[in-house]
């Protein structure tokens, strides 16, 4: 048991480099755009049924 193995995760961690600021900004902007699209899709798809039910319920009262 004298033979010790290298930890491959420590080797991976040592090879990490800091991303350039321009690249970080682009990635964060892309994530923000994707999140906006998902929120808009959720607004118009998931909540559409509830909005239509309320609309027709309100129109039926008159």
Q: What structural class do helix, strand and pairing data support?
A: mainly alpha
Gap between N and C termini? 85 Å
The share of residues in extended strands comes to under 5%
Sheet having the most strands = none
Number of strands: 0
Helix content: over 70%
Radius of gyration: 26 Å
- Average pLDDT score: 82
The poorly predicted ranges are none
The total of helices stands at: 3
Tell me the overall shape: elongated
The sequence of SSEs as H and E is HHH
Topology:
Blueprint: H1 8-14, H2 21-45, H3 48-60
Description:
- The protein has about 60 residues and is mostly helical.
- The chain has 3 helices and no strands.
- It has helices at about 10-15, 20-45, 50-60.
- The longest helix is centred in the middle third of the chain and has 25 residues, at about 20-45.
- The termini are far apart.
- The mean pLDDT is about 80.
Features:
elongated, single chain, mainly alpha, 3 helices, 62 residues
Put the structure in a nutshell.
The protein has helices spanning 8-14, 21-45, 48-60. The chain contains 3 helices and no strands.
């Amino acid at each position: 048991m004298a033979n010790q193995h290298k930890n491959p995760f420590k080797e991976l961690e040592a090879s990490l480099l800091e991303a350039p600021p321009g690249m970080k900004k682009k990635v964060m902007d892309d994530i923000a755009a994707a999140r906006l699209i998902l929120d808009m899709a959720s607004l118009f798809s998931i909540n559409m049924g509830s909005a239509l039910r309320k609309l027709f319920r309100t129109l039926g009262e008159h």
